[in-house]
Amino acid sequence: MSKTDEVRKAMVDAMKAKDKDTKDTLSLLLAALKNKAIDKRADLTEEEEVQVILKEIKQTKESLEMTPSDRTDMIEECKRRLAVLETFAPKMMDANEIKAVVESVLSELGITAPTTKDKGRIMKELMPKVKGKADGKLVNEIVGSYMTE
After folding, report:
1. Which letter, b or e, does each residue of 87-96 get, where b requires 16 or more Cβ atoms within 10 Å of its Cβ?
2. In angstroms, how far is CA 47 from the centroid of its own chain?
């Protein structure tokens, strides 16, 4: 079952349960998935569906960060949307899992004491392995912690 079908089924369940907030969030996510498929002029792969979901999560987090603290209604809405969207996102790697991948990339490249000059090469090899599975900011911080210069 594709993510699009899962979202559609969850939206129907939310409508039956009269859960307006969940239904609205899933409706927006379904629209984003459909728009991506229309742009591509073909069905989405699972990886592309995950990318759309992660993009929606990122946009919601950015909205949450930019919302003034006195707008509690908007903050609560963003938090509810995030909770719904994150149920469809893949499990993200934690710091220990990312460190293991970074160390394997370092050994593949034969780098024992990485410097800031090596960071580009390391990231070029690393990002395809963790794309969609780990937060880019966290990956960057972990790679930065290995730098000697």
Report:
1. ebeeeebeee
2. 11
From CA 93, how far away is CA 60, in angstroms rounded? 20
Q: What is the pTM of this model?
A: 0.72
Give every CB contact of residue 46 below 8 A, 6+ residues apart in sequence: 2, 3
Pick from 126, 134, 63: nearest CA to 93: 134
- pLDDT tens for the chain, 149 residues long, are 788 899 999 999 999 999 999 999 999 999 999 999 999 898 888 888 888 998 999 899 999 999 998 999 999 999 999 999 989 888 888 888 888 888 888 888 888 888 888 888 888 888 888 887 888 888 888 888 887 66
Q: State how far the alpha carbon of 46 is from the alpha carbons of 15, 49, 82, 123, in Å.
A: 25, 5, 20, 24
Number of H helices, E strands in the chain: 7, 0
Tokens coding 103 = 């160390």
Task: Find how far residue 131's CA is from the centre of its chain.
Answer: 9
In contact, 85 and 27? CB cutoff 8 Å = no
